[in-house]
Structures are given as structure tokens and as C-alpha cells.
Amino acid sequence: DPLFILYTSGTTGKPKGVPLTHGHLAASIRSAMAAWRWSADDVLAHALPLYHQHGLSGLHAALIAGGTVHIRSRFSPADLVRTIGEAGATVLFAVPTIYQALLAADVDVAALRGLRLAVCGSAPLNPALAARLASVLGQVPLIRYGTTETGLDVSNPVDRRSGDTVGVPLPGVLARLWAGDGEAEPGADGEIQLRGPQVFSGYWHDAAAT
Questions:
Q1: Distance CA 25, CA 3 (A)
Q2: What whole-number distance in Å separates Cα of residue 175 and Cα of residue 170?
Q3: 210 residues of the chain, pLDDT tens digit each
Q4: Residue 6 Cα distances to 72, 120, 156, angstroms
Q5: DSSP character at residue 185
Q6: Rg of the chain in Å (alpha carbons)
Q7: Which of 57, 163, 167, 184 has the greatest number of C-beta atoms within 10 Å?
Q8: If we measure between CA atoms, which residue out of 170, 134, 174, 131 comes closest to residue 37?
């Protein structure tokens, strides 16, 4: 059954409605939870808005696992770092601009060392920023890729994180780069194509875009 309608970010055109079912959501978040070893013991510190996939996926992972999530009504470096420390947070979901702000802020970021997992998505993470973050977090952020239409699709492995790649397909996801009538050559541009139970069925009242 339909669960909700999310809207695309509008980076390449007018935002489009994306109906997602309970099945789409469960397939997407459970594959990420398996890859990221999410458990009931995890505590998520969360300052992302809850009207798009990135923010919602963190909330849903905590609910499905029976874990804990501390939701902040807005982001500020001091508040987020204080929440991580006071809550004993093990997981953080953030975007590159949040990580950049944490580095630039005049706050004691020692609490960030207690994180088990620092996830980054929704925008490209500059490799230079990733390297700087590694010295503060004690780890390279775990970069992942997904879309409103397909949920979480590709991720760095937990044990082999890199600051210059989005990683490999998550469990149950097939992904390829397609150019013309075949797979793109290594290093060449191509269209990202995804297949799996997390992929949506079509845009809301927009057959042409579908």
C-alpha cells in the first residue's frame, strides 16, 4: 500500500511527486541496515529535515531496529555536538555542508570520536574534506548514494570506506552505468540505472515524466 509521496529536489527540473509503498521503504532501509550493521543498541543524532529520503531513512532505521533517535528541530554545530555527547550517539546522518560547518565551528568536537558510523549523502563529498574529517572523526565518513525514486542504493562498505567513491550496490540492488546500447567503459560517463524492490513505480500524475 502507498505510504507517502515525497518530492524530488528539483535540481534538474520542477519537483515531481514520488509515491512510495511500505514495501519500497522496507526494502531500501533494511538493505542499508544490513550493510551498516545497524542494531537496537545504536543511538542516532539527527538534525536533518524529515521531508526527504535522507532524513527519513535515519528515522526509519532507528524505528525498525528498536533503537533510539534524538531529533533536533534545527541544525547548529554546538547543539549537534552537545547532543552527540550527552546521548552517547553512535550514528550521525549528515550532508557535506553540515560536516563542513562542524569543522569550522568554534566547538569542542571530541564527542564526534564516539561515533561508530558517520553517514554522508545528498551531495558529493569533496575528497579533501573527507580527509580532514577523518582526523576529527577518527574515521572517513561512510558515503552513500540514492535518489528519491529509488531510496538507498549504493554505499561504501563499513570496513572499507573511501572519501572519493560512493561505493558498491547495497544488498538486493542491481546498478550499472549505461551509455548508448551498452555498459559504459571504465572512467567514461554514463546513465545510472538501478533495479530492485526499492525502485518506485512512477511519478504522481505525471505519465510523461515516468
A1: 8
A2: 9
A3: 999 999 998 777 889 999 999 999 999 999 999 999 999 999 999 999 998 888 999 999 999 999 999 999 999 999 999 999 999 999 999 999 999 999 999 999 999 999 999 999 999 999 999 999 999 999 999 999 999 999 999 999 999 999 889 999 999 999 999 998 999 999 899 999 999 999 999 999 999 999
A4: 21, 20, 25
A5: P
A6: 17
A7: 57
A8: 170
